[in-house]
Amino acid sequence: MSEVDTSHFQKEIIVRNIREEDIEEVVKVANLSFGIPGVAFEAKHYRSHINIFPEGQFCVEYDGKIIGACSSIIINFEDYGEDHTIDQISGNGYIQNHNPHGKNLYGLDVVVHPDYRTLKIGRRLYEERRKLCRKFNLKSILFGGRMPNYYKYADKLTPEEYVDQVIKKKIYDPVIVFQTMNGFKFKKVLKNYLPHDEASLENATLMEWVNEDYVPPSHKDYRHSLPVRISSIQYDFKEVQSFADFAQQCEYYVRSSSKVRSDFVLFPEAITMQLAAFSKERFPSGQAQKVTTYTEDYMQLFSDLAVKYSINIIAGSHYVEEDDEIYNVSYLFRRNGTFERQYKLHVVPAEKSWLGIQPGEDVKVFDTDCGKIAILIGYDILFPELARKAAEQGAQIIFTPFAEENEQGYLRIRYCSQARAIENQVYTVISGASGNMTTITLADAKYGQSGIFSPVDFSFPNAGIIAESHPNVEAVVVGDVDLEILRRNRETGSATPFKDRNQQQEAESASMN
């Protein structure tokens, strides 16, 4: 089959370490971001940063252009105390005081191009710092943050009173609000911290994020947990009057998932059949064909949402026309702007007879920033060989968007999803819909109960249920899965079917040779 050319939707967001050739562009972004002469680091400073501590210097590249950056240093914070200045903590901007054996990561700056502040660039950079903090087993992240609205209140409030009012949401300060929303706690006001910062009257807020995975140095070996947060949408399948209505509903669920800092959000199967509600088509195959005309709109919508809300989206599934045939396709839209597709491999009888849907060819495993995943659409989860193949290729989470009209159909999906989690020692996630649309064949009634499942063992929740919704109500189901616990369970669990099956296969192969 030939695939629809959707390459023009891929404008990838890449977070990476700063290189020598990036410095000139990073300096431009820094000056635009601060908008205050004499505050941003100069090229000579960034050059010193990447020479001394390259792992701590990040930039964000979007569509080939640098749109954000941050610099960091490792120190022992007690060596400086709580009354330091930016010059003291940064070694006058050159970070020659970087201590690779220190206990704290100190953030020196975060800069974002003003034209791209809706893409959550700052949040992505903060997340890279957290990863770095965990990687080096550092106790915390600290920094001195600006107070850009303080000058408006300086005649009435002390800096401490101002911060207290902002934290209580009685005054708005964009920087302090952003930092507290990203998990940082206010410690104290730093006086005379940043020269030339007239808006803050040279004050700054000392902020700290404590690394919950920090382990004090010892002779014992340890591994950090690798938590991943997942939102599974129990979608309200209701009448819409336009694509804009559909987009608004989808954005609501993505925004809700982003607010709780989910790494993935999963939508149900055939989600775009909702768009047939305002078409004049009444024959089922015509409705499916009509839905295929929205492919570009669908791609653009979820590609934009993944980047805007910094979340990986498995956007249910959508009917796509290729070479005069229609396929049921699920798309993974990564938060860095790239995407992948998985075709439904087993088509249920109703899809064949009513809609003319054709099967795809193979199951794929996709790399993400939160491990390897696979997507098995609806009926595909009933075939154990597909999940087995995905797990053997490294999949740690299997996502299943489904669409069922009665409880029997839902239970087949649920029980098989839980069986796949046990058989392959993976996490599985299912997402269905509730509601009805009387004018759409195969969508006139929905039965759904979304959930997140694990293997069944002492390391996991009772009965292997991490989270689930009530049946047939609109809901966002949120749960955390731990990939390190999964790895350990595969090696030393009460039952180890994944390892034992592979060993048996190896033994059988050896005997045949």
TrEMBL record:
Its keywords, alphabetically, are: Hydrolase
Superkingdom of source: Bacteria
Q: Does the keyword Plastid apply?
A: no
Molecular function as annotated in GO: hydrolase activity
Indicate yes or no for the key word Transport.
Answer: no
Q: What are the residue boundaries of the CN hydrolase domain, all occurrences included?
A: 228-483
N-acetyltransferase domain spans which residues?
A: 13-212
| Disordered: annotated span | 492-513
Bias (Polar residues) occurs at 504-513
User: Which sequence ranges are marked TM in the entry?
Assistant: none
Protein name as it appears in the record: Hydrolase YhcX
The top of its lineage is: Bacteria, Bacillati, Bacillota, Bacilli, Bacillales
